[in-house]
Batch of 2 targets.
Target 1
Amino acid sequence: MSPKPAYSVVVPVYNEEAILPELYRRLTDVMEGLGEPYEILFVNDGSRDHSLQIMHALHRQDPRVKVISFSRNFGHQMAITAGLDYARGDAVVIIDADLQDPPEVIPDLVAKWKEGYEVVYAVRTEREGETWFKELTAKLFYRLIRRITNVDIPLDTGDFRLMDRQVVETLRAMRERHRFMRGMSSWVGFRQTGVPYRRQARFAGETKYPFNKMLKFALDGITSFSYMPLQIATYLGFGIAALSALFIVFVVIARLSGLQAFAGQATTLVAVLFLGGIQLISLGILGEYVGRIYEEVKERPLYIVSKTWGVEGPSVPPHAHVVDVSDSRRMPATDRKEKQENAPQPQ
Ligand code: UDP
Ligand code: MG
């Protein structure tokens, strides 16, 4: 076993071949400057380009680079989850591969950690090279989620953060499927603080978060931390019932006084369609939650590891549902034979 590193840097990677060499260079510069042993954990999230080959080459030239490769694309949040499962450092840094999070901020995160904070998140004060649409939706989303949840998720933070071993172990015990890691790492508590930074433009390539993925991510964030959407149906129900009661009184009075108001089909049709719409929306919201419960009870593994280089495997809590079928996890052939020989014979 290699000596236990002080720092682990977890990098989720999905089709980032154009960026990896530069990322490695800048990360190494920064990490070496810290003067303590470290590891860089690349989690290959089912890339279809040459990312994996590049990571392998980096691992061969520098054993501090370790690689965990998924059997397919499981998503950014799962890649981070796997990184936390395999990381061995006393402090773990999560950083995007695309250099939007500058590695040069890591020493600032480390300094705060040394002051005694267990979670140090990086707060973007500016975003460069993002579309106005992404900037606006992100801004609105973080403000919305802050209002409707009772978790204190700091504004304008992403997953770029440093976490102490204690926090990492806590997060590792949380095996929920729809993962909003930045919310979860606030939920756990401990002493938390932020460090401001300027979010850079992507170094190369394009975003791996198209609109539909972003929407799903936002829904995961909201449903993981709030029942508010479910309560909307209740509030609407009470509101509409109260209005209708008033309306009944109004219609009776209008009729008795001989007014010809609200006669005709259009009124009925509009009322029925309006309520039908509201009911369908409420059902849909219910569906979002029921679907998530369904996924949760299936208890499938969160991700499947098909290949690893350099890692020693996760120290898995028994309920963790980690599937690692990579070669390195396979029993050596001799052990397997022995095991067969020692197996109890059928009577
Ligand atoms: N990523 C991933 N799996 C995915 C999508 C993205 O591992 O399915 C990685 C990606 O390689 C990058 C990070 O997650 O390191 C953030 O993705 P991206 O930069 O595309 O998101 P954005 O910054 O545009 O929100
Ligand atoms: Mg990015």
Note: Residues 228-298 form one domain.
Target 2
Amino acid sequence: MKCLVIGGGAREHVIASVLLGDPEVESVVVAPGNAGIASLVHCVPIDVTDAQAIGELATELDVDLVVVGPEVPLMAGAADALIARGIPCFGPTREAALIEGSKAFCKEMMAEAGIPTAMALVCVNTSEAEIALGAFGAPYVVKDDGLAAGKGVVVTSDRSEALEHAQSCFAAGGTVVIEEFLDGPEVSLFGISDGTTVIPLQPAQDFKRVGEGDEGPNTGGMGAYSPLPWLEESVVGEVTERVLQPMLDALKRRGTPFVGVLYAGLAMTRRGIRVIEFNARFGDPETQVVLSRLATPLGGLLLAAATGQLESFAQLRWVPGFAVNVVIAAQGYPANPLLGSAISGCENVELEPNTSVFHGGTARVDGELVTSGGRVLSVTAHAPTLSQARERAYAGVVQIEIDGSHFRPDIAQKACATDS
Ligand code: AMP
Ligand code: GLY
């Protein structure tokens, strides 16, 4: 099987390397990729917002499967362009990807499907926002309706900060969703879907805030671990039944079946499971800790999803133990990441047992590895226990040097107390 992966972050680095481990996969090309991915497979430059160019590349390479990593090409219609050419695509059409592309649409679909989520109001101007903030009270949750790379959400107890965020979205011509605050630990669960059937992967936890102790602004994710020793096993089945399958059924009824990763971001509140958001793709950095533990060959799974054959797919197998991923972010991330800073020490970390360095935002300039994005590297380690995996990941992180870079020192820390 020949595969093309679209994207250029650490998630695509993982997807490419796990696909290469599938004996049925004879080649993987990534477009556009990055410096780390280029040391693994052939990379081709591409504008990921150009769906036709993605279709043309897939035809030219004569691939059997395209895996679309990020949300941007999905919202640009990459899957639609591939389907029109008869090329199997793992990733939803533009219409189905709207569950991520529009928070207001996602809320509507959840209401229709009876999926438990935070109460919310869609607001188009300041007076509506003021009413909504008053209705839900503090802490305030204000979300930009459109795609914002995980950075469009403000959660704050400061009413004026909440209102300012809403006003900056209105000023940019957008709408906002203001909603009830959900308390409790977060869980990310990915469902592999062929439009009708969904197969859940193992759950992960992501750390969204930039700073230690969940301080500071939201990011795309600063680290993750999987599986979750504190989560009851029955939760995956419950989420599949009450969240993933109803959303899949609702999208199918609407005439826009969802093929790809149905990603449920959940809060485990005292009143039960609530959906914080849906995404239409693998999460980053959760993918680093989930797919790297998948023992079932990935190419076969994703092709079965892309061609509507999941119903008869065998039960997934997993590598035992735990994985922890720590993101090293560029100076200034998330507001203004500094690009072009020199990176050193990666090679040594890659030599460590059960440790991988997945590249998120790296490039080669005159042969030197430099930062080219906010989340530069994802150091991922595996071990029989969560504490050991965590120690290994940080032992790798501290060997890497990038001027002014930062990472969270507390990824998976609390969960280690419940490690089995
Ligand atoms: P989203 O882009 O909707 O996933 O939001 C990003 C992050 O903001 C989530 O992972 C949560 O940490 C936080 N968040 C979003 N909605 C809520 C909510 N209703 N209550 C509490 N935290 C939230
Ligand atoms: N890690 C969160 C996301 O991928 O949206």
Note: The mean pLDDT is 95.
